[in-house]
Design a protein that fits this description.
two-stranded antiparallel sheet; 11 helices; 19% strand
């Protein structure tokens, strides 16, 4: 499965991922401590929804365009909607912020952010996106390896966002290995992995693999339809290790609203593995 960010910018899964990311960042930055953030697969940082790659799929029509047009959408989306409005001051939604844009705009003076990207073209755009923030670095490096090295040196809280394009057959295995090593080196680290939901067994196998590492992991799960056709992306999930308390309700609200964008078979909720 190829999930390069530019093809799917602003789609239903981005609503779950980015609304969830902003809620998680707000909770992690509640104190005065510094936060060391690593984004393993950052992409370009922002996307033109009228560009060739976005227009090829047209997925934003059932995602961010629906959200921005709905004045009655739950308040859990306020942060994402504000970020989109800030990037489109004329009121027409054309530019969509990726995770680097959302994270960088919320960096405090004491925070550090490393955004990893291997593709030359996306890296050049990522460097432009992050240029205004001195605490942010775009790095052409393996994101999994960088997450382990960077968070292992951190003396306090760290946050790792893992959002691969799933072009490689070993992505699920590397996510699990990265979680295990980061948690071994830094027990205070919070890790969030975004996953496409295609079939039930792949999802269940991942949860079985991460349960020994993070038995209280928070699972924010959004299904547009039953997970019985592995040729389709039937939903998505954010799985979070070390999630602060109190996020189950807001993340469940995000997933439930997005699941309602489907064809009446949707389901969205947030729950703890051993809750």
């Amino acid at each position: 499965m190829n999930y390069r960010h530019a093809f799917h910018a602003g789609n239903f899964a981005d609503l779950v991922k980015h609304a969830g990311l902003l809620l998680l960042l707000e909770a992690l930055q509640a104190g005065e401590h510094s936060l060391n953030i690593v984004d393993t697969h950052a992409g370009a940082g922002g996307y033109d929804l009228e560009g060739e790659l976005s227009r090829r799929t047209g997925e934003a029509a059932q995602g961010i365009f629906r959200l921005m047009a709905d004045d009655g959408a739950p308040g859990v989306f306020d942060g994402l909607k504000a970020a989109v409005r800030a990037g489109n001051p004329d009121g027409v939604v054309r530019f969509y912020p990726g995770s680097p844009s959302l994270i960088a705009a919320r960096l405090r003076r004491q925070d550090l952010y490393t955004a990893c990207e291997l593709r030359d073209d996306d890296l050049a755009l990522l460097e432009q996106t992050l240029a205004p923030w001195r605490q942010a670095e775009a790095r052409q490096a393996d994101g999994y390896e960088t997450a382990v090295a960077a968070t292992g040196r951190a003396k306090g809280p760290a946050f790792v966002l893992i959002d691969p394009p799933f072009e490689r057959a070993d992505d699920y295995r590397r996510i699990v290995e990265t979680w295990r090593e980061v948690k071994r080196r830094n027990p205070w680290a919070c890790l969030a992995a975004w996953l496409p939901l295609k079939d039930m067994e792949t999802f269940d196998a991942f949860l079985r693999d991460i349960e020994p590492i993070a038995p209280d992991a928070l699972v924010a799960e959004c299904r547009l339809r039953p997970l019985n056709d592995p040729m389709k992306m039937n939903g998505c999930a954010l799985v979070i290790a070390g999630a602060p308390a109190g996020l189950e309700g807001p993340l469940g609200e995000v997933c439930a609203w997005v699941a309602g964008l489907g064809e009446g078979q949707g389901r969205g909720e947030a729950w703890r593995l051993n809750g």
